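Pipeline run #58 for the internal structure catalog. This entry was flagged by the ingest filter as a single-chain record with no existing model, so it goes straight to prediction. Upstream metadata was stripped on purpose; only the residue string is passed forward. Reviewer on rotation: M.T. Logging verbosity set to normal.
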Amino acid sequence: MIKLSPKLSQRLSYTILFLATLLAIIPVSAIIFTIIKNGASAITWEFLTAMPKNGMHGGGILPAILGTLSIVTCTIVITLPIGVCAAIYLNEYAKDNLLTRIIKLAIINLAGVPSVVYGLFGLGIFVMFLKLDVSIIAGALTLSIMELPVIITTSRSALNSVPYSFREASLSLGVSRWQTIRYIVLPNALPGILTGAILSISRISGETAPVLFTAAAFSVPHLPHSIFDQVMVLPYHLYIISTQIPNMPKNIIFGTALVLLMMVLTMSFIAIVARIYFRKRRKW
């Protein structure tokens, strides 16, 4: 067996890791470059603010943009409080017994369930059983169930990152457990919680299957007026114009993809900035 010197072994490891990074970056960069190259010409003020017309061959994608933002906003309003509260209970209050271990395992497993399964679940429960019809609230509830495991998992990781000595010091001064969590643990875990929440938003912005069954419409001639309205959403709209409508101009297809991509990248950028800002404010 050939024995490499530590210096040569370090260089070899560095080279392998660098090549692996390139293999991950190059395809993503190629996709982004292709979308920008073919879709930038379609990005105009009218494209972003007008209603579709001429069978979606002209006009804009405003209903799809607002529909996506409406569903994402409702989803995070529902999911974030429930997910963070569940994470606090599991991490700070629940005893380590068989029941809590089963719950934690179930949360991890639910995070890996395909989104189409959640879509069918939402169709059966919210659309048919609860009679919410195909609407913003039905889609938001479906996406909330899909994202709860992710929010709970990331929030628990953020809470676990706070040193246990902080809790001990607070409790030793006679502070209650809830006050310790509220004033000591949560502020220090906030960067991780916010990062997980914003990255979850960017994920659900691109989901097609759940909203296809519960919220999305092929074409809506008006903007949504309430959470019980059916809406157009960018992922489903992109699927329709790229596969179901003949002779659709290529720049409109890539322009729609570019808008969706910019929404997702913007949310990811906000997550990075928020994480850096709150980490700088931490005292440990």
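catalog note: Strands lie at 52-53, 58-59.
catalog note: DSSP finds eleven helices and two strands in the chain.
status: ready for reviewer M.T.
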